[in-house]
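Figure-free illustration: sequence to structure, shown twice.
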Amino acid sequence: MKTVLCADNMSQTINQALTLPRPLVNKILAHAQQSIDNQSACMSCGLISVNASNKKSYYPITELIDTSNCFSKTNTSLQQTLTRITEQQQTVFAYVFTAANNTDKPDKNIFSIDRHYYIMNALDTKGVLSMQGFYREGNDLQQVALTLEL
């Protein structure tokens, strides 16, 4: 267990941490930066998958019909990406969401799938990607520590 200082200056005890390889984070950043001209609430989103040997891959979701919720079950591009992940014998590890503005508290409607990690990015930080990790368990969305694999 770790105690971390959250954005609201309240310490929170967590028992989960999320470690991501640097090349994967670079792919997430590149995808987010390609979407920088889009002024919708959701600038970009994608999925991180994991295979049996624990190798993680990033799948950008490229055609967003419902920009208010990238992970809506009606999003055809999301469904196609989920099928592709399954066909490659992988499972969804995390959902990635990039917004135009930095928010301390994620929208529980966007992060609605239970027992998954979520990564929230913001691009309004002057050339730096702000990245936060969360884990959803039931109605509880808990912030988790994010670290880079070396």
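We now fold a second protein in the same way, so the two outputs can be compared directly.
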Amino acid sequence: MAHPVPRIRTMTTLSRRESLILHCLVLGASNRQISRDLRISEAAVKVHLTRLLVKLKVVSRSQAQEQAIDDGWVVLNSYHLAKIT
């Protein structure tokens, strides 16, 4: 049985890849985990992450996570909330 996937509100300022990385960040994934999940290099993850932080006007992963949840860009269900708390 597949796990439920959090809804991601598409943001016009973020690329599809940046949106996917933001989703992974909210779930607490490391750069290595993101690179494996998205089948890209860790260097590519770092580049996308840097661009993502600049676009969101934040300086850390935790600020990006908080903004994504608070602004409704990533909506977590109870399954995901249980995993990250």
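Summary for the second example: Residues 7-11, 79-85 have pLDDT under 50 and may be disordered.
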